[in-house]
Design a protein that fits this description.
Helicase, Ruva Protein, domain 3, 59% helix, 341 residues, alpha/beta, 3 domains, Zinc Finger, Delta Prime, domain 3, single chain, Rossmann fold, globular
Length: 341
């Protein structure tokens, strides 16, 4: 069965299917749709989850092995298979057909895939999945659909904006929903659940266009101390709100902590990146950071982040911007407080 993305939640509330294929080249919608399925499966008792990532070295026999393996911890299993390029090849096509013909009981197969070529929608493996379970294709949004999505996203945070305010957001994000979600998160951190004024939205957008907090995040991950200092000084000089800067920094710290934990749990690096929605463009930066920064240093950065938050709110004495600089230099691999990491 084919479903639109907006039909998925209602379908999940009715009954879980044996197989789900979520495909497309819009990463935020793809990731959130997969998260919906994982959450529904977890609530239904599918506690055992096995992640398979298809790359050039992947052996498709692993899919059959995962389906046939019994867990001593849980009778219900979710097989979480990642197919980044959307092309399973001949062996993968056969594996999917075999799986659909002999799908095991108490097992859900979730396939997240890149955009399928037009010919793939008529292939036997896709048709088998449609007959067995659910196919959802996600598409980039534009025009009225994008405006509606932005409005709904704001409502989820208890915020709203008029059409002119939404248009300001549209000009900033250029159709990138990941960027849109980040901009909305920044607005929520700064203003809370309110009806946003157009000038408030324009102010945040204008700040980002000059000294972007996401450029700061990239400099942190790269460990470029000189660039970190320059960007941070620019953000402060431009009047960018300290809570936005802190949010950007702590978001990266928490992602690194989650990836390190995933690696300690025995997952491969590709699995850890995929689980935490680290896309190809950012993988080299994240990879450099997890090798440079140990867990103690990341924990120290989080403690300092809590201190900066208190300083911003006036609950603790001190200069929040100085604490932000200390966190940034710590993340760059330096010892701004004269301590070793």
């Amino acid at each position: 069965m084919r479903l639109r993305l907006d039909q998925l939640e209602a379908n999940l509330n009715k009954q879980l299917q044996a197989v789900y294929l979520i495909c497309g080249d819009e990463p935020l919608q793809l990731g959130e749709a997969a998260d919906q399925i994982r959450k529904a499966a977890k609530q239904a008792g599918f506690d055992n989850r096995e992640i398979l990532t298809v790359d050039t070295h992947f052996d498709w026999r692993e899919l059959s092995a995962a389906a046939e393996a019994m867990s001593i911890f849980s009778e219900k299993k979710l097989i979480d298979l990642r197919l980044p390029n959307g092309k399973p090849g001949m062996e993968g096509s056969k594996a999917f057909l075999y799986y659909c013909e002999r799908r095991p009981e108490d097992t859900i197969l979730l396939i997240t895939s890149g955009k399928l070529e037009s010919s793939a929608s008529k292939s036997k493996w896709v048709q088998a999945i449609e007959a067995t379970g659910i196919l959802v294709q996600v598409w980039p949004l534009a025009g009225k659909e994008l405006m509606n999505w932005l409005s709904q996203r704001l409502q989820q945070k208890g915020m709203s904006a008029d059409s002119d305010g939404l248009k300001i957001l549209v000009t900033r994000i250029e159709g990138n929903l990941l960027a849109a979600a980040q901009e909305i998160e920044k607005l929520f951190v700064l203003y809370g659940p309110v009806k946003l004024k157009n000038e408030d939205i324009a102010s945040v957008v204008a700040d980002s266009s000059r000294y972007d907090v996401f450029n700061l995040a990239d400099a942190l991950l790269a460990g470029n101390a000189e660039r970190i200092v320059k960007i941070l000084e620019g953000l402060e000089a431009e009047g960018v709100a300290a809570p936005i800067v802190l949010w950007s920094i702590t978001r990266e710290i928490r992602v690194l902590c989650k990836i390190k934990q995933s690696l300690r749990d025995g997952h491969s690096k590709d699995q850890a990146f995929s689980k935490n929605q680290v896309w190809d463009k950012r993988k080299p930066l994240i990879d450099a950071a997890i090798h440079r920064l140990n867990t103690n240093r990341l924990d120290q950065a989080l403690l300092l982040s809590a201190k900066a938050d208190r300083q911003i709110k006036g609950a603790q004495m001190g200069d929040a911007w100085q604490t932000l600089l200390t966190i940034c230099l710590l993340m760059a691999g330096l010892d701004p407080m004269g301590e070793t990491g």
